[in-house]
Design goal:
3 helices; Multidrug-efflux Transporter 1 Regulator Bmrr, Chain A; eight-stranded antiparallel sheet; single chain; alpha+beta
């Protein structure tokens, strides 16, 4: 019993160390912006349960395609959510893929292009040096805090980007 407290402290320290290593201590920057340029994505649509195996496969396919370099202009993993992922119970509508610069590449079977038009008012939350496993939770909570503080209303679609160097961004439409 006398070793219980030191073991709890040791495991807590290890857990905090891992959390810090993954970038969990970094805070996102949040700002209200109007998008200046369109955002072009290449990917696949998804509608269904968030815990469906196919949804996870779409992310893996996008990551594999990015690493292969087949879409030379792919800059980041990117996802569009057409309904609020936090309040959509278990069903989501999304577009999972890559952020691309142009439409010159030949897309794999089942892939399409989607454009997010410019001129949208968004809450942009950005964080760097943070693992993609932790960044969505940090980005969404920071964006929602600003929305609540400024008494704004969320307006889908929401755009997530996970770029090189563990730089992540969320653009949540507002009005």
């Amino acid at each position: 019993m006398r070793f219980f407290f030191p073991l709890v402290l040791l495991f807590t320290a290890i857990g905090l160390g891992i959390y810090a290593y993954l970038g969990g201590l970094h805070a996102p920057t949040v700002a209200l912006e109007t998008t200046a340029a369109p955002v072009l994505l290449a990917g696949q649509p998804y509608a269904g349960k968030a815990d469906n195996q196919r949804f996870g496969e779409l992310f893996r396919e996008a990551s594999t395609l990015q690493q292969s370099g087949r879409l030379g202009s792919a800059r980041a993993l990117a996802n569009l959510y057409y309904n609020d992922p936090s309040s959509a119970s278990d069903t989501i509508r999304a577009f999972v893929g890559l952020l691309v610069a142009d439409t010159s590449a030949t897309l794999p079977t089942g892939w399409r292009y989607r454009v997010v038009p410019p001129g949208r008012r968004v809450v942009a939350a950005r964080i760097s040096s943070t693992s993609f496993m932790l960044s969505p939770g940090k980005l969404y909570s920071a964006a929602e805090e600003l929305i609540k503080a400024q008494k704004l209303t969320k307006q889908p679609p929401y755009l997530e980007q996970f770029g090189p160097g563990e730089a992540s961004e969320l653009r949540m439409g507002v009005n």
